[in-house]
Design goal:
288 residues, mainly alpha, binds retinal, metal-binding, membrane, EC 1.13.11.63, carotenoid dioxygenase activity, transmembrane helix
């Protein structure tokens, strides 16, 4: 799987050398809205397939209502306390990306696992942000009116990578992985983020390194194997949710009108709102 992901990543990077800046943005947005959104479109079915979640067992309508309520709550928080919600969003996403990457390589459910995966995810974001400082400063400013300083990025990267290194050294007995290979993946991510602009760098990581493996795990969890039939079942079942998410996003863009400077902030706050419940669903299936 990882070899395919490396090939896909470099293929996509090679493809972008033929694209203009706006072409790269279009490719990034297509990746996020297709594979990216798709990997969160079967959350309700995943919840229904759990023995229980949060000690509860609810029916489809109840889960759907709860899900929509959490999305709306996330959106309202973004509106009312944008900076706090953004920090929370990046922290939760870091844990979520790390959990996806490490779940089969280290003993789960320990405090160490939560700390390690969060620091790993933060290191990925720190790499992405470090190589795209002007764009990150703009998007964060547009999102919550807070202007990050350039002096923030290098220490943020060094601290996260440093803590990751220390935790890896102390906890290496808990892992079943090749750390040289893991360091190589981080190098590949750094390379992608330094070559591609912010949105494309994020999209390549998010779709190839997070959403595809997550789709793989989810299909196995739901149908027991990866086959044409189970892929077809997954796609047909997620279609209506995927389509509703896209319609929701389109509706927001329609309501705010054609203000270009709001395009990325709206996309990221939309992602944040739908990410909050998704992270809890995946956390529950990883626990089973
Ligand atoms: C890239 C980026 C950001 C963070 C995005 C995040 C945190 C995305 C997480 C998505 C997830 C976890 C999706 C679901 O699986 C900021 C800080 C908004 C602004 C600068 C660019």
């Amino acid at each position: 799987m990882k070899a395919i992901m490396i090939v896909l990543t470099f293929f996509a990077l090679w493809l972008t050398s033929f694209l203009s800046a706006s072409g790269e943005n279009v490719l990034a947005i297509i990746l996020i809205l297709t594979i990216g959104i798709l990997h969160g479109s079967n959350d309700i079915k995943l919840l229904l397939n759990l023995k229980e979640s949060f000690g509860l067992k609810m029916n489809k309508q109840q889960y759907l209502l709860l899900y929509i309520a959490v999305v709306l709550l996330g959106a309202i928080c973004f509106y009312l306390i944008p900076l706090v919600t953004l920090v929370l969003f990046v922290g939760i996403s870091a844990y979520h990306f790390g959990e996806q990457h490490w779940s089969d390589k280290v003993h789960k459910h320990s405090k160490f696992f939560i700390g390690y995966t969060t620091i790993y995810g933060l290191s990925i974001f720190a790499l992405l942000f470090y190589f795209n400082q002007p764009e990150v400063i703009e998007v964060v400013d547009d999102l919550c009116g807070f202007r990050l300083k350039h002096a923030f990025f290098a220490p943020f990267l060094i601290i996260n990578l440093g803590v990751l290194l220390i935790l890896s050294a102390f906890g290496h007995k808990k892992f079943t992985c090749n750390f040289i290979l893991e360091a190589f993946y981080l190098l590949v991510f750094g390379l992608i983020f330094s070559i591609a602009p912010l949105i494309l760098g994020f999209a390549l990581y998010f779709t190839i390194w997070h959403s595809l493996p997550s789709l793989n795990d989810q299909i196995k969890f739901l149908y027991g194997d990866i086959s044409k039939e189970s892929l077809f079942k997954y796609l047909t079942n997620s279609l209506v949710y995927w389509f509703s998410a896209l319609l929701g996003l389109l509706a927001i863009y329609y309501i705010i009108g054609s203000d270009d400077s709001l395009f990325l902030p709206v996309l990221f706050s939309f992602l944040a709102a739908i990410t909050f419940p998704h992270v809890f669903v995946i956390e529950q299936i990883e626990r089973e």
